[in-house]
From TrEMBL:
Protein name, UniProt field: DUF1501 domain-containing protein
Region of interest (Disordered), residue spans: 232-254
Annotated Low complexity bias: 245-254
PANTHER family referenced in this protein's UniProt entry, alphabetically: BLL7424 PROTEIN, DUF1501 DOMAIN-CONTAINING PROTEIN
PROSITE patterns documented for this protein: TAT (PS51318)
Amino acid sequence: MDVLTRRRFLVASGVVGATALAGGGAAVRLTDLFATAGDRDPEARTLVLVTLYGGNDGLNTVVPYADPAYRDARPELAHSAEEVLKLDDGFGLNPALAGLHRAYGDGRLAVVRGVGYPKPDRSHFRSMDIWHTAQPDRPGNTGWLGRWLDHAGADPRLAVSFESALPPLLAGERGAGASVPVGEQRTAAGLPASTLAALGVAAPGESPARARAAACFTDLRSVDEMIRAVREAPDGGGPDDDGETAPATATGGARASLEAQLDLVAQCVEAGVSTRVFSVSLGGFDTHADEKQLQQVLLGMLDTALSRFHTRMAGSEAGRKVVTAVYSEFGRRVAANGSDGTDHGTASNMLLLGAPVRGGLYGEPPSLTDLDDGDLKFHTDFRDVYATLLTDVLDTDPGAVLAGWKGHLTGVL
């Protein structure tokens, strides 16, 4: 989604009200976040939530290559047994996910199959609303991590988004997480550093609005400098090997790359900031046409970003306590459409990655022949995964956040 579409989503869904927005990104600066460095419990784990906007095709991500029904349903889109990166005798990862395949071999990647919810909705907005609120029957006006934030003290610095708009999942009853967007902004060219610095300093007697504008300009320069430092580092996330920079990743417009978002997460983790939850995203997965090549490009971007991030995290004690969860609002239909793509579906996979994760395949894989009107039947409720993350990463009773939910994944963390 582009920024405008996502803002409309925030309002139309009713998930984020004026109070939550005021308590979120508009009230917290990047400098406020780094001011908490050293405040967190060194034993505490960190959750990084990666949202894949658009509805990623789960069957071509975790590929049931040995099932003849898979190739029968999508002969032009199916990946062959020779193409996939095998996990076992029946399933393999998309060829673009080489880094995640190595993580699986190292026991650090868990693949949770058949994840969904009752009475699935194929609307992007409605389904994402359900995932963000964790309330399938009637999505409320708070996000599941926003409710966790309420229980954790409502300090917005505990839950941070490096996206272009505050995601509804971080909206609580009493406040919301902090939004620090990482965009393609540019400061004025040709101005001396002293002039740029002066623009970020509030003058005595200025109105609160002007002072806030100065603070925002300072934050913008800070983010620009951090991203520039990462890109210029010898092992940083610079241009791709072919010399071209990564394309825009959002479904409806340019936005900072997932690598740039995760680079900032890595710096925060290494600095020991108080943040326990980070939200980042990658868009473009609404693959109604010419899916096979497009999805491989997008999954390649995901794989590069996650692999570099977790290699970096493995180098520090705080980084080895990071758990990353990857999900999308729904999967795609089993059968291909007439445009070499797939249409909106239902159940899909979730990926959990990190040193605390016990790697492997979890959950029952949905049947490709016993379908619900052409769609996969889910076997694992996504609230089971959320409950596991709340319990084993955020040290929180999931019942207090998920309306008494009792489900849980066993053995994954």
